[in-house]
Amino acid sequence: MAKVKGFSLVELMIVLAVVAILAAIAYPMYQSYILRSACDSGKAGLLQADALMNQLYMQYGVYNNADIKDNKLPGMGYIPVDGSSTKADFTIAVSPLEAKKYTITATVTSYGRLRRFSGSTLTIDQSGARGGSIGGINVWTNGCSALK
């Protein structure tokens, strides 16, 4: 009698069950990671804009100078400030722009990784005061890992 080679149906079902369990654990963790990274990039964009504003203040002695056009900052790097990218998680704007004060607002877009929180805002002003929330969660104090 020849020896049969291959897998039995029971062995195949066990492997499928193990893969399904691993996928059920890994996918929610991946989704959580995506939300945290998008949130952190928005916070980093705000802090980058704040640093640019302070650099402009050191250079000109005022916040409202010729380098800022239409309430948008130059040199923002990887964060689109005008919403021109259809993959941007945030748009960033500066207002009201006065000689000695400003507020920078990052607004969640409707097409980025945080789209279900569309319209949520994070802010930072000239004194470093941070405000706003994403999905009702203050990510400045609770951290982005609180997003679900």
Automatic annotation (TrEMBL):
The chain crosses the membrane at residues 12-30. Keywords: Membrane, Transmembrane, Transmembrane helix. GO terms for biological process: type IV pilus assembly. Pfam families: ComP_DUS, N_methyl. InterPro entries: N_methyl_site, PilE-like, Pilin-like. It comes from the Bacteria. This is Prepilin-type N-terminal cleavage/methylation domain-containing protein. It comes from Entomomonas moraniae.
